[in-house]
């Protein structure tokens, strides 16, 4: 299964993301607002994010998502505007301050931050090129987010894994819309299962169905002829590619 996800370029959906953090924090906040003041509910939501981060192994992508998610809560609680660029910079600073070695040895840290940089900086730039793409069912936004993240992490993927997926873009466009639904229903399966097991099984059946579709799609795209082929990128090639991308975005 992991090979199928890697071949189709959708392995990133197996990692804990900001969407998971958002679900946890919003559900906790929404539930606690029935019983306590907003400021108290905010601190309990922050605690829920910390516990969730520890529970899932505290990998680089989870810590990055947790820090940025916590800053979203802080901005909302204090009535300030949330700036994703400042949030990403602060998250990177704190993580490198805690452990400078992740800059060199943590691939998850590198992929997570470059993908987020792509969404923040590349997506707005590409948006003007793809205005004619219809946004029904959120197609245009999904396309831009996917393409932007893929462009920024592609050099790293070639450098570390030596594999270029020809089906990554179409596979992401088709599979990604299922992921928020699968995550949300899966989350509520756990909650309802704690209250009444039979209801949890009923909702869980829907989560199983959606997840089965995702697994089938990953296998389908991975088995297509020429789905991927090897490409080797040296370290100086990696640096050169990112310099070109940065200069292109600046000028």
Q: Could you characterize the architecture of this molecule?
A:
By secondary structure, this protein is an all-alpha fold. Helix content is 75%, strand content 2%. It is built from twelve helices and two strands; from the N terminus they run H-H-H-H-H-H-H-H-E-H-H-H-E-H. It has helices at 2-7, 18-32, 38-55, 60-78, 84-98, 102-105, 107-127, 139-161, 168-175, 178-195, 197-222, 235-250, and strands at residues 164-165, 228-229. It has a two-stranded antiparallel sheet with strand order 1-2. Helix 2 (18-32) packs across helix 4, helix 2 crosses helix 10 (178-195) and helix 8 (139-161) runs antiparallel to helix 12. The N and C termini lie far apart (42 Å).
Write down the overall mean pLDDT: 87
Query: Number of DSSP helices?
Result: 12
Q: Which stretches of 5+ consecutive residues score pLDDT under 50? A: none
In total, the number of strands is: 2
* Beta-strand percentage range: under 5%
Question: Which sequence of strands runs across the widest sheet?
Answer: 1-2
Give the end-to-end Cα distance, rounded to a whole number of Å.
42 Å
- Report the major sheet: 2 strands, antiparallel
What is the helical fraction, as a range of percent?
over 70%
Radius of gyration, rounded?
A: 19 Å
H and E string: HHHHHHHHEHHHEH
Structural class estimated from helices and strands: mainly alpha
Q: Which of globular, elongated, flat, extended, rod-shaped describes the shape?
A: globular
Features:
globular; 2 strands; about 250 residues; two-stranded antiparallel sheet; 12 helices; mainly alpha
């Amino acid at each position: 299964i992991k090979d199928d996800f890697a071949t189709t370029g959708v392995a990133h959906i197996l990692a804990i993301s900001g969407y998971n953090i958002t679900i946890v924090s919003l559900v906790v906040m929404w539930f606690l607002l029935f019983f306590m003041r907003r400021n108290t509910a905010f601190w309990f939501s922050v605690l829920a994010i910390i516990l969730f981060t520890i529970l899932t192994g505290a990998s680089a992508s989870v810590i990055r998502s947790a820090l940025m998610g916590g800053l979203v809560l802080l901005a909302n609680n204090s009535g300030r505007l949330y700036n994703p660029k400042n949030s990403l910079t602060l998250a990177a600073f704190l993580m490198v301050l805690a452990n400078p070695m992740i800059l060199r040895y943590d691939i998850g840290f590198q992929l997570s931050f470059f993908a987020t940089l792509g969404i923040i900086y590349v997506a707005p730039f590409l948006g003007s090129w793809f205005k004619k793409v219809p946004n029904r069912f959120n197609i245009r936004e999904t396309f831009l987010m996917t393409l932007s993240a893929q462009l920024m992490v592609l050099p790293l993927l070639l450098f570390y894994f030596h594999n270029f997926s020809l089906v990554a873009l179409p596979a992401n466009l088709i599979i990604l819309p299922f992921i928020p639904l699968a995550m949300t229903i899966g989350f509520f399966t756990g909650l309802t299962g704690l209250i009444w097991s039979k209801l949890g099984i009923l909702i869980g059946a829907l989560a199983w169905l959606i997840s089965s579709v995702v697994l089938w799609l990953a296998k389908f795209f991975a088995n297509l002829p020429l789905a991927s082929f090897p490409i080797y990128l040296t370290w100086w090639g990696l640096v050169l590619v990112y310099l070109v991308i940065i200069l292109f975005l600046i000028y």
